[in-house]
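tool_log.txt
---
The assistant was asked to compare two proteins side by side. It first ran the structure predictor on the initial sequence, then on the second. Raw inputs and outputs are pasted verbatim so the downstream comparison step can read them without reformatting.
(1)
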Amino acid sequence: MNLSIKAAFFAAAVLVPAFAFAQSSEPLTREQVRAQLVQLEKAGYNPLADCPGECPEGLRRAEARVEQQQANANAAYGPALNGTVQSGK
């Protein structure tokens, strides 16, 4: 019975990120779902951990960390410059 609970939790953990990131009109591929799960695990989320009642909170914390990391990566190069430059005057 313990194995079936862990298997059900793991299946739910794989599907939750798919729904959390399902903002595009295209369906996600298996590779995309796996990549998102790897990102969440690197951010501290453990889908196979015994959850004493804070499983959704742990997932939310990991998602927030991933979003922050993506925002930092996007801001690392600064904003897009759409102007013109004249030199030599």
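(2)
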Amino acid sequence: MVPYRARAEVSGANEVMGMCRERRWLDASVRLTELMLDRPEGEPEVTFFLGEFCRQGVDLLGVPAVGAMLAEEGGALRAAASSDENSELLELIASQRQEGPCVEGYRLGAPLYDVDLRAQADRWPAFCARALEYGISRAAVLPLRLRGAWLGTWQVYGHADLPGREELELTQRLADIAVLTLTQSAYLRHLNRSAEGLRTALTSRIAIEQAKGMLAAQWGVSPDDAFQPMRAYARARQCKLREVARDVIAGRLRLPRR
């Protein structure tokens, strides 16, 4: 029997380890959300975010490699990112388009927490041979998901063993954050485009109304009657109405009264 004092010391040590793990996970999640502002110019967004998630996953889980695959139209998987740029690792991930634990997990729509690749050599001969040659003998497959729908998979690769299910599920939260960050980033871009379009439309409308008012005052007609020569001029020359309006306001264009 473990003495009471010893049991207390073990419990305290486990609590400290748990707090350290939680802190590292929180730091990783904050880093992923900050990346919305840090993406280098020209780097593909999906590759950037998922690559950073894979690197964070290696640090959190203490494994040799983490990879990610995304589903294409029709259900085929393609390699999207990895924890490093090692060509052999990228080839290993990409080789699962037709067979391997990623394809299996994605088709089943269920996580695979610990796949012994030596035991599956007959099932996925090409992938297992490549993995074992690379020094990988175990793998886990979990979802890249949004609201329950699988968008692809992320994979953990180990030499002899893998982290437990609790650690994998904790890191799954980080994968969920990565997908949400990507979704939020795309939504913000959509809002920015919409806002820019609205600003352009409002600015154009203001210029057109101002030009109509100027012509109406000059000709002693209604704004609607003043608008017709502006529209006819723009159509005849295949130019934008707002450009005609700005030229009228600036005095660069004198329209004939109709």
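---
observation on (2): The CA atoms of residues 233 and 239 lie 8 Å apart. The helical segments are 4-38, 45-61, 87-94, 101-108, 125-134, 165-219, 223-237, 241-250.
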